[in-house]
C-alpha cells in the first residue's frame, strides 16, 4: 500500500494522529527536515521506524513533544536546560538529558541508554500534529539510513513511500538542516551534532563554553557516521573550477547548474541544500561538484553534512 498523502488541515492531522495511536508510521514536516514519526511509547511502532529506515539498531531516536511540561515528564530537567529552552524552543535544538525514571517511552527509543534526546519543534504543522496526538513522538529524519535528508514530502515518498502509512505534506522545511544536538548529561555541555542553531548562539546563553565532540569519541549519533547524507553521485567538495559532465552546485557568483545562494546567504543555502542535492542527483550525473562554503555560523553545519556526503562509502 502506498503512503497516504495528507494535508495540514485539522481533519487530516486528526487522521494522522489516529494512525500514530494505532502504531502506524507518519512522516511529518518540522522546520528542520521531515521526520518519520511513531508513538514513542509503543515498542512495535518504534521498531518499525528502524526497519523502514534500514537503520542500524542501537542508534537512539529524538522524541518530539508539544511543550515544556511534556519534555519535563521524560527527562531530568536542569538550569542549563531551562536557559536553552527559554532561548531556543520551540526550534531546531535537541537536548540530550538524563532519562527520568519511569518515563513512558519505549526502550527502543533510547537504544538502552540512560539519556534521552528531546525537542520541541517550531513548525506549526508539527506543533498541531503533536497536540492532536497528545503524546511523545519518536522521529528520525524520514529518509533511508545514509541517504540525503528529506525537506519536501516528495523526498519522503521517493525513499519510504511503500513502507509508511502516511506523510503529512506541509511544504518545504524552513531551516533545511537537522537540529543542533547538545549533550547535557555531563559538564561541560557537548555539541553532538552541529545544526540549525549555531555554536555561537548556544555559547551566548550558557555560562560554560560548550565542548565539541571529537571524532575519536566514538559514534554517539548516527548522523555522525562518516558517510551519511549521501546522494547516489560522487561528491566533490571545494570545487573552484567545474569539470565537463559534472553537476555543478554553486555558492556565490559562480556559473553553475543550481546555486545554493547567489548572494552568499548561509541561511538560504541551508534551506536549499538537501533539495538541490536531490535535484542534481536526479540528473544522473556521475559527480556533483560543490563550491566552497564558508566555515562560520550555519556554514559549520552545512560543511558537516557535505563532508559526510562526500565521504568514502
Ligand atoms: O532536526 C532533527 O533533529 C530531525 C527532525 C525530524 O527532528 N531529526 C533527526 O533525527 O535528525 P535523526 O534520528 O536523523 O538524528 C537523531 C540524532 C542521531 O544522530 C542520534 O544518534 C542522536 O540524535 N541521539 C538520539 N538520542 C541520543 C542520546 N540519548 N544520546 C546521544 N545522541 C542521541
Ligand atoms: Mg538523519
Provide a descriptive summary of the structure in words.
This protein has 313 residues and is of the alpha/beta class. It has helices at 10-21, 43-53, 68-72, 79-88, 107-110, 124-133, 153-160, 199-205, 266-282, 298-310, and strands spanning 4-6, 26-29, 34-39, 62-64, 93-98, 115-119, 137-138, 166-168, 180-183, 190-193, 211-212, 234-236, 247-250, 258-259, 287-290. The protein has two domains: 4-224, Alpha-Beta Complex (DHBP synthase), CATH 3.90.870; 234-310, no CATH class. 31% of the residues lie in helices and 18% in strands. It has an eleven-stranded mixed beta sheet with strand order 1-8-2-3-7-4-6-5-9-10-11, sandwiched between helices. Strand 10 (190-193), helix 8 (199-205) and strand 11 form a beta-alpha-beta unit. Helix 1 crosses helix 6 and helix 9 packs parallel to helix 10 (298-310). The longest helix has 17 residues, at 266-282. The chain binds threonylcarbamoyladenylate (TXA) and magnesium ion (MG). The site of threonylcarbamoyladenylate has 28 residues, from strand 5, strand 6 and strand 10.
